[in-house]
Amino acid sequence: MVTIADYTLRTTNEGKDYFALILQGGIELVKSTTSDMHYATALKCSMPTTFDEATCKGLVGKQLPGVIVKKNCEPFQVLNKNTGEMVVINQRNFYSPDAVSSESGIFEGAAEKAIFA
Fold first, then answer.
1. Is residue 98 within 8 Å of residue 67, measured between CB atoms?
2. Model pTM?
3. Strand ranges, E, within the chain
4. pLDDT 10s digits, 51-100
5. CB distance 115 to 105 below 8 Å
6. Please, what sign has the CA dihedral across residues 74, 96, 7, 43?
7. 107 CB contacts (<8 Å, ≥6 apart)?
8. Can you tell me the distance from the alpha carbon of 93 to that of 49, in angstroms, rounded to the nearest whole number?
9. C-alpha distances in angstroms, 92 versus 3, 17, 78, 82?
10. Which residues are 41's β-sheet partners?
11. Cβ neighbours of 12 (radius 10 Å)
């Protein structure tokens, strides 16, 4: 299951405003490559909507079937706000309505079915 954690106002390249839902997947335990310690995290992604703000606000906390999967994409640059460094990213998180874990999704091909969000 995926939880609607928040929403945000976005603007298209044409200058039109719309709301996007911020989706959060389940908790995953990950081992740090630098400290060798485990920590808890959750994948997040956004999904464009046609909803108004009141509808988006009412959806926060609701759950949707599916998972968030990591998928390779064309490399793009992102500014790290903490360090000011430009970082090259080649993966994005996507919502997939298929109810599989992100690890099994990668091995079973579900990541290829992911919907762009």
1. yes
2. 0.73
3. 2-11, 17-24, 28-31, 38-41, 44-48, 63-64, 67-79, 86-96
4. 999 999 999 999 999 999 999 999 999 998 889 999 999 999 999 998 65
5. no
6. negative
7. none
8. 17
9. 18, 23, 12, 20
10. 28
11. 9
